[in-house]
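re: that complex we talked abt at group meeting.

here r the seqs, copy pasted straight from the sheet so there may be weird spacing, ignore it
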Amino acid sequence: MSYIRPEFRHPASKTNTSGFTRKDYEGALSTLCAGCGHDSVSNAIIDSCFELGVWPHRVAKISGIGCSSKTPTYFLGKSHGFNSVHGRMPSVATGANMANGEMAYIGVSGDSDTASIGLGQFAHVARRNLNMVYIVENNGCYGLTKGQDSATTDVGSSSKKGDPNPYEAVDLCSMALQLGATFVARSFSGDKEQLVPLIKAAITHNGFAFIDVISPCVTFNNTPASSKGFEFVREHREATGKMDFVPVRSEITTNYEPGFVKEITLHYGSVIHLYKDDKLDCTDRNSALRAIQEHDEKGRILTGLLYVDPDSRDFHKVQQTVKQPLRDLNEEDLCPGARSLNAINASLR
Amino acid sequence: MARALLPPLLAPGLSLMSEFLGLAYFAEVPAVLFDIQRAGPSTGMPTRTQQSDIFAAAYASHGDTKHVLLIPSDPKECFEMSAESFNLADRLQTPIILMSDLDLGMNDNLCEPLEWDDERAYDRGKVFSKEDLDDMSERYGRYLDIDGDGICYRTLPGIHPDKGAFFTRGTSRDEYAIYTESGEAYVRNMERLSKKFETAKDLVPAPQLHEAKKATRDGMIFYGSSNNACLEALDILAADGLHLNAMRIRGFPFSKEVTDFIERHDRVFVIDQNRDAQMRKLLIIECELNPRKMLSYTHFDGMPMTALGAAKHIASVLGGSNVTPLRKKKAGEKA
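got the structure back, here u go
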């Protein structure tokens, strides 16, 4: 959203556990359309990182191509970032993550970037369980090229152009579950209360954390006949049980809201609190798949945390890679030296 | 953000990765690729050798792109150039493509034993450390050409809490990595990339020269796995009284030594293992040569080239006597 943002911040702005104010997590001024759902997602990422107290320079932002992939400029201005190639953010994220596993990786993609050109890369980064947050800002259209239908446009849904889409939609949450993602959630850009705890849990999760955020395109796909417009999503959305995220450093009090039923402890000791039971068991992949399908059959959109594997082993763990970032390794660490080479030469004689 | 990437690929993979190569060139990401060239186009003859990716590698991707190539001729050089390619990638902050081929990459080859100097240190190029950033009073710019050689200073993620972060991309940006569609900023950046390519000329491996035993105005240029066959062809030709100076090209962009060699000869045969004489044409384009003096011998049936084939062709052009294979000469027979 383009507007003139005041630079002034209250001198007594609240600081987080790491001593940063919210401003330290902001980025450049957005150039997206006024009212774009993506700007709300950027703000939710800023809130999540601020509330978690992550150090901005220990986060890397990676994206593909599209409106959504432009957004990493608009948050975390003190973090390194890479706006890469259409549909191939996962391979850049994989390279960066393998080179330095100490950083938090936030990938931002869109529905065409992930469900069309990037489908192959998405599949493999999910099944490899790369330790990253993978957010799809899903608006069901190609916003950057004037709103053509995308692979996540529902059958019969119409964009501004007015023609109902004749093709089956790709459901990215179901795909992520089937491909082995260890954290799967769906949310809505218009529901910050749900989205922020999800992003916080996703950052903390040790593995591939996928969040499909329905993020309406106000310019091309916000018609009453569109299933990705604000009106439709608000009317047809159902949430899984409310979720709270309690970071590891916080004291866990017993001040749960009424209805608290389940506690899931994540890798580093942070805790997810789930309220209100419904039929979904968030630690059971099949239960999540069934719940998505049952809601879909009733024409409802299920949002919230769908699945988490608290014992997830990420790609580094599976590959048994070195703990240090590669930039810190020197000749002594990396080079087997002349003796080893001489042995190889001898073996070939 | 990674220090260097290392995808080994067969020739079609180079086509597949072209978009990323353009991104790495423009965003200035160090990367190393090994192209094991085989007979194309498309799947071509996937079990046969060729040197037919010269154009595809040198100018890979859309837009104005140019890439640094290293061209080894035997397993020992593959080994040495592999190690050097990582240094060059970091020094030049651009993809380095090692142009091997199927003959080198999959067949057994004899070579000198591989050697390693334990004193050898990595060259990580221009990287600002946390201390460098602490000492800086001015604003850090990822694409600022401080030294005037076209190569800018990088920072690595996670080093400094509030200095040195940048958001890079394949879209145009200014010296501070800020997105811009300013034509002037774009032109400045593209011209700096050209300057960097000039800098690369003196950093790639120098050509190897072979002087003929007699003074001559004829020359021969070859590269890669053509080395042994070409050296033998020179011997065969010399035995028949046809003398040529020779140069084996080992890198691209071409250094001054390469142009000097061509300039001091009237006729230069360029030996290519591809149909279109790609190295000959690359030389003509890049060194702005008169095509008439650049003669060609091409061999592209997928099998490694032979000395006799090259020698016969060159002898027929130079008007020499019948070429006699060295191995058929009897002891004491006059050359």
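couple things i noticed - Confidence is low (pLDDT under 50) at residues 251-256 of chain A. DSSP finds twelve helices and 13 strands in chain A.
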